[in-house]
Design goal:
This protein is of the alpha/beta class. The protein is about 40% helix and about 15% strand. It has a domain of about 160 residues. Helix 2 links the parallel strand 1 and strand 2. Helix 4 crosses helix 5. The protein is globular and about 55 Å long.
Length: about 250
């Protein structure tokens, strides 16, 4: 009887998380250099928001660059044209972290180029013969310093690690289960996979993340993954949140 009473009094996990009233939030997954898809998705978001009388809010989950050949174009586009939301939130992805690391530590160059950094270098006009030259990371580092616009560096340096709205927490990769949200490490927020993806724990918020690619949005009881592999699938996804409702927009 006591066990049943405790179960009755325990907060119901079946209650859907919510964002504040009067807000429609659009969270955009990993772009990876597909500026064409970003443009298309923002058109869809603008059309979706056109009849909404409340406040709209955009949250980008990181990984704007690498793998896709328009990596520099993605950053330029978000800097020049974001008229839907006066204050969008831009989160940091592990790929942005890798670029920033490479600017100060060329020893990370091999790993960065192996998971898509070569596309970013090419998008900034680094000569292909230099990008393809084995092991010349000193020259690549110097070339990137020369070609990376100050506005782009400021954008990359100012990216946030997490964003909390209502019952939702927005991060790039996920969180370390069992660690308080305010004590999460940057490494976990940007890079974690299996410990987070396989966890069934309640994290104190519904976690919305990218980083781990799935063909379609991955909706679980404790997390929502929206990295739908834009660079490979042509599908860039936005999660739309309003009150307790959630839906998706795709390219």
């Amino acid at each position: 009887m006591l066990t049943r009473l405790r179960q009755f009094l325990r907060p119901s996990w079946r209650m859907l998380p919510a964002v504040p009233p009067g807000l429609r939030l659009y969270a955009i997954g990993d772009i990876h250099g597909r500026c064409d898809l970003l443009q298309r998705l923002l058109v869809r978001i603008a059309a979706d928001a056109a009849g909404f009388s409340g406040r709209t809010h955009l949250v980008f989950l990181g990984d704007y660059i690498d793998r896709g050949l328009e990596s520099a174009g993605v950053i330029e586009y978000v800097l020049q044209r974001l008229d839907l939301d006066a204050a969008p939130v831009f989160l940091k992805g592990n790929h942005e972290a890798a670029l920033l690391d490479f600017l100060t530590d060329r020893t990370v160059g091999r790993n960065w180029l192996a998971f898509g950094g070569d596309a970013t270098l090419l998008s900034y006009g680094v000569p292909p013969d230099l990008v393809q030259r084995p092991g010349d990371y000193r020259a690549l580092q110097a070339a990137l310093h020369q070609r990376l616009p100050p506005a782009h560096l400021a954008f990359l340096s100012g990216l946030r690690l997490q964003h909390h709205v209502g019952d939702y927490l927005f991060v790039h990769a996920g969180i370390r289960p069992g660690v308080a949200l305010e004590r999460q490490s940057e490494a976990d927020l940007l890079w974690i996979r299996d410990p987070f993806l396989q966890s069934r724990a309640r994290h104190g918020a519904m976690v919305v993340h990218g980083h781990s690619m799935t063909e379609w949005p991955d909706v679980r009881d404790n997390r929502i993954g929206i990295d739908t592999g834009a660079f490979a699938t042509g599908r860039l996804t936005a999660l739309v949140l309003e009150g307790q409702e959630r839906r998706f927009l795709h390219t």
